Amino acid sequence: MRIGVVGTGYVGLVTGSCLADSGNSVTCLDINADKIARLERGEVPIYEPGLEELVERNSKAGRLKFTTDTAAAIRDAEVVFLAVGTPPAADGSADLSALWSVVDSIASHLRPEAVVVTKSTVPVGTCAGIERRLKAAIGRDCRVASNPEFLKEGAAIEDFQKPDRVVVGVRSSEVGDILRTLYAPFLRTENPFLVMSPESSEMTKYVANALLATKISFINEVANLCERMEADIDDVRRGIGHDSRIGFAFLFPGAGYGGSCFPKDVQALAAMARDKGVAPRILAAVHDTNLAQKKVLGDKIAAWFGGDLVGKHVAIWGLAFKPRTDDVRDAPALDLIERLLAGGALVTAYDPEAMGNVRALFGDRVGYAAGPLEALDGADCLAIVTEWGDFRRPDFDEMRRRMKGRVIFDGRNLYDPREMRDRGFSYHAIGKQPV
Ligand SMILES: NC(=O)c1ccc[n+]([C@@H]2O[C@H](COP(=O)([O-])OP(=O)(O)OC[C@H]3O[C@@H](n4cnc5c(N)ncnc54)[C@H](O)[C@@H]3O)[C@@H](O)[C@H]2O)c1
């Protein structure tokens, strides 16, 4: 099929390259001319494992093209995916300005039989809104579908190519069949292709993210309680996880969730609820709990230094909101850095992929180390914020030699507290007794 993808971010670029890799002819459109120029040169502007190779292979094969020219991307396309950002507005609702601007700009270029598909996470009713807006612009009915994306950054290609399920929201079975054909190569293992209304499909995406965020906030609250009750969250987690009604997924305590999806989607669903006169009590609590959780590491560090951070040298391992990505949107590390700098601390950070994005925000107010061990030179303490594989089995002897204070605040529970005590560290994890 001939496919247009609008927006070449984490979702659009992965969607475009995976669809090209399954034999489609894909043109990706973005308003960011610099991004498009880099992609045309074969440079991938984001870090996502496997993406560079996929872009290179399909660009060379002539199946994947990049442009800033709307007509060039849309006029031949049988299916047009919208994958632009839908960030939070001031009141928490989804800001759809980029999406509406795309709808307006593509309208006159659409083929009569083209299917416009929202891959961006959009509030319930947006597909219907796009149908109305396109009709008003070009005077005829257009085929619009919802197809939310469930990929995880860091494993985006695998998730796209082997999805647990594909959800589509359509008004006609013909449109459902077009999307079924497009996704067939990715569903060979019989994972389900679920067809529903656009409204249910739009809702499904928010509910999936809101439930995952709820699990995280729940276990974080319980972890904080464990710390004050001489209980250990890992024991409790094992104790509940083996219950087949509960399971283990997404029940790891930490420094709070971040990224471009959970925080904004929880708030957007809450805004939709309020708009319909339904009190979003759980969603509000999930969000507030997460804001508080992002402060926990900073609180522990401040308390350790008696409330005075002036001149304290804090090393940070991990800046991305999760491992295997360079994405720092809403990352807990940003809150921690703000807090430490405001308190007068010196911060030296290391992340395998995300230092460029943090430098764009904090500039030289933060020191950037060449490696994890280098970040520790002369540090009064270490804070671990992202669970990159590199941090799991470090050279503890070398760490001890390089650090001035042998204190670790671990926001991801990477180590065994007893082992850390035996190695001569003071170790503070989440939901465990400090040693
Ligand atoms: N990132 C994820 O893990 C993820 C997962 C599932 C769903 N989503 C959803 O997918 C959508 C996109 O997310 P993302 O992380 O890829 O965003 P992103 O910010 O990485 O990318 C958005 C892209 O859209 C481009 N853009 C903005 N306005 C445009 C316009 N008028 N015309 C053409 N291009 C335009 C931007 O330049 C940017 O390259 C969001 O709704 C998000 O909620 C994201």
Find the structural class using helix and strand composition.
alpha/beta
**Assembly classification:** single chain
Total count of strands: 14
Percent of residues in helices: 40-55%
The bound ligands are: nicotinamide-adenine-dinucleotide
Detail the poorly predicted runs: none
- What is the averaged pLDDT score? 97
Spatial gap, N to C terminus: 60 Å
Alpha plus pi helix count = 17
Content of β-strand: 5-15%
- Any idea what the radius of gyration is? 23 Å
Largest sheet: 6 strands, parallel
Shape label: globular
Strand order of the largest sheet: 3-2-1-4-5-6
Describe this structure in words.
With 435 residues, the chain is of the alpha/beta class. The chain contains 17 helices and 14 strands. Strands 3-2-1-4-5-6 form a six-stranded parallel β-sheet, with helices on both faces. The chain has a six-stranded parallel β-sheet with strand order 11-10-9-12-13-14. β7 (166-169), α8 (173-183) and β8 (193-196) form a beta-alpha-beta unit. α1 crosses α3 (51-60). The protein is globular, with a radius of gyration of 23 Å. The model has no long low-confidence stretch (mean pLDDT 97). Nicotinamide-adenine-dinucleotide binds at residues 6-12, 29-32, 35, 83-86, 98, 101-102, 120-121, 149, 151, 153, 260-261.
Give a quick precis of the structure:
By secondary structure, this protein is an alpha/beta fold. Helix content is 42%, strand content 13%.
